[in-house]
Specification:
Layout (H helix, E strand, L loop, with lengths): L3 E8 L3 H9 L1 H8 L1 E3 L8 E6 L8 E10 L3 E6 L16 E10 L2 E9 L9 H23 L2
Antiparallel strand pairs: 1-7, 2-3, 3-4, 4-5, 5-6, 6-7
């Protein structure tokens, strides 16, 4: 089984617009469907609540790792941590990296999530499968957001 997920999409939007969509907490929240409590700051926790219907009980809890404008934004989080009342803090988080590359007519955006092999064996297959689906949907969401 794979240890990572990678999705790439070519967006008809300039790098600066895509960077803003990724790193401005309100813009990110709009397309990602999460209500964040504050700004993204390297080294700091980012908290909030998911706004996806049926998942409003899910807490957003990530740690921002890198913000290298306008090419790399990364954070760690606990993937598919959706069970109410379960404490996932003892698990090793996965690393999510967004990489932006200017291309003719826009931006190539690649998201990579790695570290699934460090998850508990009973959680790893579901987390990998659900985040694979989730990143496919989120790439469509950011495309709709930046190309409008």
């Amino acid at each position: 089984m794979s240890n990572s997920i990678e999705k790439t999409i070519d967006l008809k939007a300039p790098v600066e617009k895509v960077w803003h969509a990724l790193t401005d907490h309100e813009a990110f929240g709009t397309w990602f469907r999460v209500k964040l409590d504050g700004l993204f700051v390297p080294g700091a926790r980012s908290t909030g609540r998911m706004t996806v219907p049926g998942y409003e009980h899910v807490t957003w809890n990530a740690t921002v790792k890198q913000m290298e404008p306008p090419r790399l934004f990364s954070f760690t989080w606990h993937p598919y941590a959706i069970e109410a009342g379960v404490d996932y803090s003892g698990e090793t988080p996965t690393l999510v990296e967004f990489r932006l590359v200017p291309i003719a007519g826009g931006t190539r955006l690649t998201v990579t999530e790695t570290g699934f092999d460090a998850l508990p064996p009973n959680r790893m297959p579901d987390a990998l499968r659900m985040n694979e689906r989730g990143w496919t949907a989120q790439m469509g969401n950011i495309q709709a957001y930046v190309e409008r």
